[in-house]
Amino acid sequence: MAQRKPSAAGVANTLLDLVSQIPASTHKVSNTPVKDSAQVIKSASLRAASVSAALAIPPGPLGMVTILPDLILIWRIQAQMVSDIAAIHGKTGFLTREALLFCLFKHGATQLFRDIVVRVGERYVLRKTSLRMVQRLCERLGLRVTQRMLGASISRWIPVAGAVAVGWYTRYDTKQVGQSALDLFSKDIDTDELKDVTESERNLP
């Protein structure tokens, strides 16, 4: 019996729910932010890898059912990591839904953020957008994620070795998210409002 695969719209809604509730952090501003951020990234990467590998152990159709729950759990771990890195740098006030999406997906979808998070020399300009534009961004990301799921689903049919591969990739992916967050929050950040929302939405690829 064929398993129902998550739709792009379903993934987009999940992402929108995720970034609409920015996780709080218990970390304080650090005198050694790079060192402490590295420790946060290492811890989150190992945790994400173990969760992802465990959920990938069931083979075949049962393993297919765990793909979206796996992603949701991993995104939550990564979102908490981003929040912790922002707190360590004293930049919690800049952790908007746009900034969180940027950190989570910059390494795989840089082009989607070209009008939202702009690097100017050694600082970033973080632009606040409309809810509609965030929804459109989540829709684009949802489509990319579901396309990636097609390749990831193959490993769910390979017992043990598939789980190891999934865990390794999740660890790598989480490290990339951490590096994006570290790069953003270690720089000076200016804020701006994206006034021409209609034009920007039209330019989203």
Please outline the helices and strands:
Blueprint: H1 8-19, H2 33-55, H3 60-65, H4 67-88, H5 97-105, E1 117-120, E2 123-128, H6 131-155, H7 161-185, E3 188-193, H8 197-203
Parallel strand pairs: 2-3
Antiparallel strand pairs: 1-2
Helix pairs in contact: 1-4, 1-6, 2-4, 2-7, 4-7, 5-7
Keywords:
8 helices, 205 residues, mainly alpha, single chain, 3-stranded mixed sheet, globular
Structural summary, described in words:
The chain has a 3-stranded mixed sheet with strand order 1-2-3. 63% of the residues lie in helices and 8% in strands. Strand 1 and strand 2 form a beta hairpin. With 205 residues, the chain is mainly alpha-helical. It has helices at 8-19, 33-55, 60-65, 67-88, 97-105, 131-155, 161-185, 197-203, and strands at 117-120, 123-128, 188-193. The radius of gyration is 17 Å and the shape is globular. The longest helix is centred in the C-terminal third of the chain and has 25 residues, at 131-155. The N and C termini lie far apart (36 Å).
Fraction in beta strands: 5-15%
Biggest sheet details: 3 strands, mixed
Shape: globular
How large is the count of helical segments? 8
Number of strands: 3
Query: Which sequence of strands runs across the widest sheet?
Result: 1-2-3
Order of helices and strands: HHHHHEEHHEH
Percent range for helical residues? 55-70%
